[in-house]
Amino acid sequence: MTSLGNFVWTTGLTFVTLLGIGAGLSCGYLLLLTFYSRRNGLPSARAAFLARQLRFDVIVPAHNEAQLIPRTVANLLNMDWPQACFRVVVIADNCSDNTATLARSAGALVLERQNDTLRGKGYALELAFQFSQASTWADAVVVVDADSEASPNLLAACAQRIGEGAHAVQAHYGVRDPFASWRTRLMCIALAAFHRVRSRAREHLNVSCGLRGNGWCVTHELLQRIPYRAYSLAEDVEYGIELGLNGYRVHYADEASVDGEMVSDAQSAQTQRQRWEHGRFALIRAKTATLLKAAYRKPSAVCFDLAMDLLVLPLSYIAVNVMALLVGALALWLWQPDSRAAGALSVLGVLCAVSMFAYVLRGWQLSGMGKQGLKDLARAPFFIGWKVLSMVRNRQPTTWVRTRRRAP
Q: What's the Cα-to-Cα distance from 148 to each of 156, 280, 328, rounded to whole Å?
């Protein structure tokens, strides 16, 4: 082989090896979580009985949600919990419509906030939490998005975990209308993998399932110790990391759910995904090193797992990584069939693909989408290509942008 050939071979092998490291760590982590994703046990009957006296403020951040807020408030007021032990508190944040009026008419306690500089869900939640703490009425707060439908047992599930010593709880976050389109069915499968598979496993491993933005609960005691100051585009993940750094894990309530509206048209879906993922990428840059240092010094399995959860990119990026690994390793092997390194990388690529496939299938199984969902998975490569292209072509958002809603 010539010197130029040696250079190309070495460069190619180094590049594919780096792809293999990234894909191996990500897919290995997903396979571990898939293995541990059996259903979690329920809290004890004693904890459930003692928790019936807890009082909750159910916080609903709402920005121009007049279309949906009456339905959401009605759903929350019908939860299976003593009426005297919870309040629905809508924070009408920078609204230019009649969200506040409609929320009051539906039976909610309403806070109105106007601030042209400090905009976003994080600031709205901070005000609502401060109000709840100052009133000294509730024992805990629960966050539900304005486009969501909560299961009747949401407060009961949170209370039972608190009764067993938890200070932070996350219910399952799913899709409200999964059969609206193939896109929402794929989203339901993706959320079942990302929320249910991962959260079940992390609960079994006694680490934090993290906060997912909708259907989460924290006690006032915890808010007093760790004030809420999360304002990024991924404010939920940010505060969940802050809890982990301070030694608290988020417990997973698998039997309760909050189902949010997932848009079915491409443009709105693109806006929604951009906001989620750019916020997450910003946290990867800001928090990964801090979490790994904390994991080493304490040592802390919670912090290490939170770092891994950040580093494992969205599934579409992992799929692209695995595909590039397979193609690169095959090219190297065809060039040098006797190379053990090329052969090992090829085997690694196959194992990563199998692990990722097992994770996706487990998500499909837990999503309840049945045969139709399995057929929709055939669209996944096109969905992945669309999403990656949309992330490359569009400017990174710096502020929260409301996703366009469908009519109820």
A: 18, 22, 44
